[in-house]
Amino acid sequence: MSDGVIIRAVGVGKKYPPRTNKSYPTARDQLARLFFSPWKLFSRRSEGAFWALKDINFEIKYGEVVGIIGRNGAGKSTLLKILSRVTEPSEGYITLRGRVSSLLEVGTGFHPELTGRENIFFNGIILGMSRREVKNKFDAIVDFADIGDFLDTPLKYYSSGMAMRLAFAVAAHLEPEILVIDEVLAVGDIEFQDKCLNKVEEISNKVGRTILLVSHQMSQVRRLCHRVIWIDKGRIRAIGNTAEVIAAYEKFFLGGEEEPSIVQKPNQKAAFRSWYIREQDQICHVLDHFESVRVVFKLEVYEPLHHPIIGIALRNPAGKILWGHYVDNIPLAKGSYELEFLFSFMPLPRGAYSWLVSMQDSRGMIDVWEGSPMMQVELPSYQHPMDQWSGVMNLPYSLDIQRVGEIVTQLT
């Protein structure tokens, strides 16, 4: 590849075989099957084959930092595993020109029974380096990882954060031509994340290494990446300039404006159309602060509603409800509305949160959003102490319901 291309993917696809539901019925179940459906006694139910990736084509040149974005389950990690030679593609091929170091998940490429010191040399050998080469980098790796007195402790006793720090330090300092990183930086604390980002910038700008970064944190992608590949349902949806691709991604998945294909369903009385975070004259779907947050939902009412009930809830990345609110008995005439929630304080850790929005009346459900739209939270200088907490939060707020600039009601 004399044209400056270090990675080339041509028609790459990954197919997983049908999965069989191997259950073990009781003797009673077997007798029931024998009596009612003897031909199914020894049958096995299986699910169809699944294409995790299909028709993936791209080229990456020396020294590029390329971000790979997409929803969970889109195929991002599968692609990185193919690039890292962890698994083979079912069709197509990938050509690599250079040594690859991968951070696919915490502890990948390390042995739990070996100490931190031993794993540094062990991982270096896997990368094809000599013992002398690893030894020359050893002090810098230990200093960067900052694992203190645990250097000679078996890896199985490390916390996930300590294992990640050591893994990143090894991958970044042993100078692979291609560095592949899959969302592992989210494990560390804020200080170490910034340290890692600075190191990625250093090895990209000064050393000229090629880096592939999978991340749900758009601030990281914007800061580091020259180009972005957006994968959706196993296929490349867009590839190109970082700002343009991220803007399209946020518009499509995190809310955005109403799509032309959205039309009124038969007999539908009302429908939610879009949502956004209002920052003065700016509209976005990424939360990067935690005070005075204005969240706006746009609602289209097709028929007058006399006693509607509107429900809003916020789910954490694990799907558990953190906060909820409902408003009822506010008549809505036909027209376009904005529901603006002003949260005086919204202390959320980094991650992708989803809104649950619904409207119903005495006759049943009118419209509902569930699991979408998504809100990305990125607070680079703020670490909330409730990172692992998933209970119901008390978020102080006020609510304005406006119809084309006219305030219908204000609630506090």
Structure in words:
The protein is α+β, with helices and mostly antiparallel strands and 412 residues long. It is built from eight helices and 21 strands. The chain has helices spanning 27-36, 76-83, 116-126, 131-145, 160-173, 190-205, 218-224, 242-253; strands at 5-16, 50-61, 65-69, 91-96, 100-103, 178-182, 210-214, 227-232, 235-241, 270-279, 282-284, 286-287, 291-301, 309-315, 321-328, 335-345, 351-361, 364-369, 374-377, 397-403, 406-411. The strands form four sheets. A six-stranded mixed beta sheet has the order 5-6-7-3-8-9, with helices on both faces. Helix 3 (116-126) crosses helix 4 and helix 4 packs across helix 5 (160-173). It is elongated. Residues 256-264 and 381-390 have low confidence and may be disordered.
Key terms:
412 residues; alpha+beta; six-stranded mixed sheet; six-stranded antiparallel sheet; 8 helices; 21 strands; 23% helix; 36% strand
